[in-house]
Amino acid sequence: MADFLDQLRRLSLVVVDDNATHRLIAAEALRGLGAGRVHHAENAAALFDVARAAPIDLLLCDWQMRDVDGITLTRQIRAGETPLPRDIPVVMVTSQSTAGAVARAVQAGADEFVAKPYAVATLAARFEAVVMNRRPFIRAAAYVGPCRRRRESLEPTLRRRLFDDAPQAPATAPWAQALEATLVEVRSLARTAVARDRATIRRLHTLIHGAGADARAHADPATRAALEGLRHYIDGVGASAAFEGKVIETHAAGVIEMLRHADAATRARMAEALGHMVRKRLVRAAS
Questions:
Q1: Helix (H, G, I), strand (E, B) or coil at 46
Q2: For residue 168, what is the DSSP state?
Q3: pLDDT tens profile 268-281
Q4: What's the predicted TM-score (pTM) here?
Q5: Cβ distance 96 to 105 under 8 Å?
Q6: Class of domain 2-146
Q7: For residues 177 and 18, what is the distance between their CA atoms, to the nearest angstrom?
Q8: Are 45 and 76 in contact (CB under 8 A)?
Q9: Which of 108, 190, 195, 262 has the most CB atoms lying inside 10 A of its own CB?
């Protein structure tokens, strides 16, 4: 984290939002994290003026804007139709947190996705991802933007149990990419959540239930079962003293890995291992 904050102080950022209050809140949050230079832009034209005047390193861009919305703006940047570098990191902000919305942001070339209302810790996690661990930038005929495959950490012992020699899946479908992005947000929130933190745990609950609904519509039985296990955990412990953010973080990482494995038997084995972990924690919480 110290390295990230040191890097953040060196960067020039732009908050792009047609709502002046939202721009101010976001800018103050970034300054509170230690951002060195934070510019404001009320629309795409104002952003282009800022970009012509000084180098810009990173964008925090609202989706719902008049004239040119965030998705269109991101596509224009990735197509090289603006004064900004095509590969500039873009963090998309929106009140839409559905899998379909995440998929559209991913397809447009956004690096990260933040759903309103967001905690400062969530914003920090997204910025840390693009500043310290940005995914490779892809320039292809059909897509320009950060690689849409994410690599998420997982506890080493559980990783060995689940994934050693497992066959890798082909490129994921848009619904799977959207589900993965939701689970990445779950993991980020879980890292900062503590027992009795009702606001954060309520947000986790909403995200997990939404992911489960998306899985029921699209995913195979093993992935659906794994997400059901995650839902049972959040429903079972709630915001009580038994809540462990690490359980949700590890479980979400496991489901992300499942989305990348094609073999049905392997996915079933992953789901069983994750389910066993959740059952143990729920028994412990009840005792």
A1: helix
A2: B
A3: 888 888 888 888 88
A4: 0.57
A5: no
A6: alpha beta
A7: 28
A8: no
A9: 190
